[in-house]
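Students often ask what a holo structure prediction actually looks like on paper. The answer is less mysterious than it sounds. You provide the chain, you provide the ligand, and the output is a string of discrete structure tokens encoding the 3D arrangement of the protein together with pyridoxal-5'-phosphate.
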Amino acid sequence: MMDQELILLNPGPACTSQRVKDALLRGDLCHREPEFSELLFRIREALPRALNLAGTHEALLVTGSGTAAMEMAVISSVRAGRGVLVVNNGVYGDRMIKIAKAHGIPFDEVRSDWTVPASPEAVAAALAGRDDVDAVICVHHETTTGLINPIKEIGEIVAAHGALFVIDAISGTAIEDQDLAEVKADVICGTANKGLHGQPGISFLLSSARAIERFHEAPERSLYLNAASYLKSDVPFTPAVQVCYALDEALAEYADQGGFEARTKLYRERAALVRGQFERLGLRILVDERFRSNTVTMLHLPESVTYDRLHDELKKRGYVIYAGQGQLSADFFRICTMGEIPWHRLEELENALRDSIAAARG
Ligand SMILES: Cc1ncc(COP(=O)(O)O)c(C=O)c1O
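The corresponding structure tokens follow.
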């Protein structure tokens, strides 16, 4: 019998600290009361600061998962009669195409293999001579495979063209080393959970002045996900108040622990620890070392081991792993070191993995 807490090694929802969980119990609050306005103000100040974007990007919060933020960002960044260019090398790039299609927004794609970072040159070629592209959309960390796309280089190209650069940083914020202040990004999407260690259910957009101007020019394609409606001092619809409490606490915890530098260092150290274990156990990683993220590792399933057996054996030992997506589901699995995880539980993962692989074969 397992006598310790289950550690989630899936890329969200991620485990959270007791401090953040306790914040959920701060009490009932009406979102039209001044106490909620103060809470919202505090979060909207803290979010850009946490990601080195204070003074350049304004935060808006939406109750909904990361996909709500992405859908809001895409449909609010495009004027009538214009389209988007989607950089697509994974499930989440694909999702941007689905969003564009769902709203009848014209789109083009720059596709690359799921294990190869997007090419800035290919983006430049796709944008050449195109004055009908209002936004370029790119996933920073493709959670599908644990692959990092070169958003800084792509941002330079998009800025030279003049389109808005919209980044899905949902699984990268406060995790990946790239300082977002160095990226020419107009809209950055993230969520409360994942790298910020809040609770899932709230997501956000960090938007430049150019992007905010665009939000007011774009047609209202959705009542709920219209970014312009969220830029006012209060929220247009009933928010997940308790999840906001938890985000407020998670942002305070993040600052107390040393902010961006400390959090990204922690993620680097965790990745090094578990990848050393994978190497010792002979588990092969799909993505080349140069392009790996700080959280997700996509691993080949060991010989004669199915994902389901491995998952169940590891769960008995206190860990939840994650399946591969799409074309990678049959032969691969993912381990993600995201959220609040005691260091010793990551150290103990090696034995749990060794034992689980043996049991799954047996
Ligand atoms: C890169 C990326 N984009 C978008 C999403 C969608 O977020 P959600 O499942 O919260 O809607 C995820 C979720 O893992 C993600 O990793």
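The longest strand covers residues 133-139.
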